[in-house]
Design goal:
By secondary structure, this protein is an alpha/beta fold. The chain has 6 helices and 6 strands; from the N terminus they run αααβαβββαβαβ. Helix content is about 35%, strand content about 15%. It has a 6-stranded mixed beta sheet, with helices on both faces.
Length: about 160
């Protein structure tokens, strides 16, 4: 429910942030629903994200998704969108491999450092989803996209914040 509220508030333009001070101490019982019910697990969160990204029209006039990050988050993201018929164009990450490398049957392009502008410019008509778990890597990729003129929450979206 919290996640649904946050995604709907985002669409309404509500600004949210973290308060720097601890405001309350919460007890997390081992039997609480968020620990035992599958509706609160990681796949359910990505199902909600995929639902709202599509519902809010962020894929309108886009040929598909390029997913930055091919780890568990990137793979779960691809699965959630594939179920909804969205075209997965491939993954981009920092894992070097053969030119025909695949992740979950989709192309996977690996770059030692950040991808060059020439590569990213081929995806101007796609939505880029950042599924990078490393906070430094996510920050660097976001900065590169902004430097190249991509607009956050329009041309690229972070599906996790680290």
């Amino acid at each position: 429910e919290d996640y649904d509220l946050i995604l709907r508030a985002y669409k309404a333009g509500v600004k949210l942030g973290k308060h720097p001070d601890k405001l309350l101490q919460k007890f997390h019982a081992s039997g609480r629903l968020s620990r035992v019910d599958s509706i609160y697990k990681r796949p359910a969160m990505f199902e909600a994200k995929a639902h709202y990204i599509i519902k809010y029209g962020l894929l309108k006039n886009r040929r598909g998704l390029l997913i930055a990050g091919s780890g568990p988050t990137g793979r779960q993201t691809a699965t959630s969108f594939e179920k909804r018929g969205v075209s997965i164009l491939g993954f981009v990450d920092n894992r070097l491999g053969p030119p025909d490398r695949k992740v979950k049957s989709w192309p996977a392009w690996g770059f030692r450092d950040l991808p060059p502008a020439e590569f990213l410019n081929k995806f101007r008509d796609a939505l880029i989803l950042l599924a990078i778990g490393d906070s430094e890597g996510q920050r660097a990729f976001s900065e590169l996209l902004r430097k190249l003129g991509f607009i956050e929450n329009s041309d690229f979206i972070r599906v996790i914040y680290s």
